[in-house]
Specification:
mainly alpha; elongated
Length: 384
Amino acid sequence: MISTFILFITAVLGFLCTTLMFGKNKYQEHSLINKYLIIITATNTIRFFVYGFAQAYPETDISKIITVLDVSIIMLMPCFYLYFTNIIYESKFELSNLLHFTVPFLLGSLFITAVCVNPDLSNRIRKLFFITVILFYVVYAIFGFVLLYKHMWRRKTVIKAIQKQNDLMKNWSIFLYVSFILVVLIRATTGIFVNQTVSFSSQHVWIPALVWISVFIKIILTPEILYGYNLLNKTIDAGSEKLILNSVWSIESTSIPITSNKDKKLENKMKPLLRVYLHQIEGLSFHTHAFRNPDLSIEDMAAALKIPSSHFNYIIKYHCNESFSDFKKIIRINDATKLLENRYLTNHTVESLAIKVGFSSYNTFIIAFKNITGVTVQEYVKRF
């Protein structure tokens, strides 16, 4: 049966997504675990597996389990809202987050209790539960839209590597938000018009399963979304033998066409040296305090690396997606975040932090910090 096959395929993809979040990806990074996204993927994996099992083995009576799973979907909307909040602010778990699940838990408990105590009122209770859940979804859909529109869909920066991740997260959040709304609409309309009963039903559940298949495939094919916004810092922290700033470097080809005859001659000489130079640049950037010099120039970098300045200038011009000025900002802001995490502001001011990491002015530092991290210094400090 095609519907059973679809349900099992969805469950398998959901299992792969959940496993991916617990395992390593191409960056060898372990910090991909977002508790709310895991709840979403794991819950749907279990649901679709049980639905598929019920269809494949109809003689097995698991109607009570299916009822509990149908009721459990009310828990998912707060998970979506908290997931988006988490990737925007990267906040730690707080007990107050559990308040979002108070209403769903009470509604689900009351529904299951009422159905078990008085089965004769089952249809009436299901209708009341259905209407309440729809209203609950509408409220969270509005809250979620406002949150996403203000903090994700309009997020901009002049740093190309970071804007690339911003655009990726914007498209992902739109995709996920629309997918969930679509799933709710499908479940509601199939309940009302197809099953002719005002309630969620596990019949025709293969239709929303198709939407979840697309969500799971998106996660598997684009693991970068699991990092949230602060991809650069997280890949820097991961520290591996591979190049860290993959989104900054243009390795396989030049970032702009080479038109100068002098640079064309230099191109052949640079090809075998490019990766070696990039590793040296990253080593100088993250394992020394060279960038704390506010007057750091291309000539200074070349001298520190003991390479010709023409070679370093060639790399920045043709194999770096950022200007040298923006590249310095990325390194300096990363330096600033490490100082903040070590509680630098306990005994110092933000102004002294700006000067320490190499910025010539406080305002330039504040603007660069918000552009690169997506939050203010004060908001960043609250995380620790």
